[in-house]
Amino acid sequence: MTRPHDLLAAAAADGVDPGPFALVRREGADHLELFTGTVRTADRLADIPLPDGPPGPRTLALVPYRQIGERGFACVDDGMPLECLVISAHQRIGLADALDVLPDRPVRSTGAGFDVADDEYAATVGRVIADEIGRGEGANFVIHRTMRATVQGPPLVAALAALRRLLLRERGAYWTFVVHTGTRILVGASPERHVSVDDGLVMMNPISGTFRHTGAAADRDALLRFLHDPKEVEELYMVLDEELKMMATVAEHGGQVVGPHLKEMAHLAHTEYLLAGRGSRDVREVLRETMFAPTVTGSPMENACRVIARHERTGRRYYAGVLALLGRDDDGRQTLDAPILIRTAELSPAGELRVPVGATLVRHSTAEDEVAETHAKGAGVLAALGLGPDAPEPAARPAVSAGLTPRHDPERSLANDPEVRAALAARNAPLARFWLDQRTPGASALPGLTGLRALIVDGEDTFTGMLAHQLGALGLRVDRRDWREPAPVDGYDLVVVGPGPGDPGDPAAPKMAVMRALLAGLLAAGRPTLAVCLGHQLLSGLLGLPLHRREAPYQGVQRDVTVFGAARRVGFYSTFTARADADRVASAYGPVELSRDPADGAVHALRGPGFAGVQFHPESVLSRDGLAVLADLLGHLLANPALTGHGPADRG
Question: Where is the Chorismate-utilising enzyme C-terminal domain (predicted)?
Fold first, then answer.
């Protein structure tokens, strides 16, 4: 079948298998793209085919969640294959033409129900908040469950009928699609770009915060309350930080933050940022280094994968993975466009239907709200599959020929409301300008730092990537090393013992023992040392300061604190803290000056002869004054009078 209408008509009429294909509408397009070809499997992302040739798409890869194992992260391995549609033909179909040929019939299913009941899911929410976030294992975690049913009739016809309803009734989707490989069918309307690469520009699109509504449009006053809700604000900040960590790896100077914006969908609305930066990596490496989005896993990423495996106990199949369209542009450069596989149903050839959904759990979460969030997130695709009510029709619908999703009317969009826009813009006021403003290399470099070398030891938190960019902006040459890679630190002017999850007082934890021994050696040798978060806690213990677990986790908390006499706004991601009763203490390594919380004695920062530590994250987007703090500490540690007091602090 060479004509796209023939292929769709045959598949839509009676479920005749036309061979592997994908039908995709990208955000804002007035057409759908039809990709046909052959399917092959790959073991690794590096094996996804991307041959040379004329410009255009080459391969559409279905990347399952189990590929996270390529990064050495934990997962329940369910054996789902990395399937690649190697594209032999690429055609366009006008949106109106596609709607004419797609089946206009209801989808009928039986035996619908969640694999994890509401009360069981609520209990899991409680355990994750208490046992994981409450014990310092991370800031936020996404736990999923799956609606299962059996589709009546040919599954491919059901998927195409669901696609038609999504095209007509859903809005705000980044991709709306059907993918048929012969072994499975995926149909969905994903709101979230995970990562894209075009003309050397790498972009990511973290979306978090969910406003549920049941009307044709969201209630404006309720939406404004949502936009000012601290829990929703902090949830978006946390995933922003986590994706900035990824951008720190795949973009040469890290990511620049754009937004936030409001993404409106039929049953709910989200808040989102856009991150952009220049990069030159192979797009398959970009995919690997960004597996997978914190919006569907959590942070810090490596430990989030352990938490998911502990509490879900089943494989995720394709949920939280990506569709990845790889190709080449007119100049032969690689391109990538990869939406996250959420709001997506998977159908087997036998009609088995799975619709996975998840909720982001943070310290403010309640079990009731997170259960409701999973229902809301599945509502659009479940309605398209006949398993839930459609969202109410808006008062008026623009013509399909205008190139708009039929439910989307820009004139009625609350995203354009002045108060909504002001509420979103206000979210950036307390954030670090380092990540919001376009940066010129060398503009923040300080006298005396050029040519000096720093080593960052990573304690399983890629905040170290962001820290490397900030130290580099100040003029240092920076290397990073995993805590599992013991090696001499000779040749470095500064060693940074970085952040990571876990209990610093756990005597059985190998990571704690290794990092504590490293710090002890650095102190004994008098080598300039900076400790951040977990590193700061371990340093505090070596200095004789007692460690305490906070009653309420400090995960994603922004505070105004005093750091050695200077007022600083900084971001915390911690559950443990050192405490002291005085601003100066004696230690085996010399006198130590402390910056403490006046209320409970929590040690926010410390410094002594050749060492310093901070409990907060100066590299976080929450640390408005983080670059200033680093500049001042480098002045102390490297004993260069030219540095002291020259922090670009006050440039933000």
Answer: 119-377
